[in-house]
Amino acid sequence: MSYESKVTSRGQVTIPKAVREQMGLEEGETVLFRFDDDGSVRLVRVPSDPRERLEAARERGSSLELNATELLDREREQWS
């Protein structure tokens, strides 16, 4: 399933209600735009609980061949 949304003159995009509901997004939550290697962009919910954030980072890192320092550096860049 796919949804469209227009970019406003201020660079803002409204996330369609069906997408917010599917992702469990609520007002005030943070999302992350992740660029994949093929140039596509994924919208990812940023967990508000630091433990959830760490677990999400572990899951993403499990398929990567990086040492712990590289993984932490990559995560710090994405969350800042």
Automatic annotation (TrEMBL):
Which GO MF terms are attached to this record?
DNA binding
**Keyword DNA-binding applies:** yes
Matching InterPro entries, A to Z? SpoVT-AbrB_dom, SpoVT-AbrB_sf
Q: Write down a Pfam family by its short name.
A: MazE_antitoxin
Which residue numbers delimit the SpoVT-AbrB domain? 2-48
**SMART domains, per database record:** SpoVT_AbrB (SM00966)
UniProt keywords (A-Z) are:
DNA-binding
Tell me which domain of life the UniProt entry assigns to the organism this sequence originates from: Archaea
Identification of the protein by name: AbrB/MazE/SpoVT family DNA-binding domain-containing protein
Give the originating organism.
Natronoglomus mannanivorans
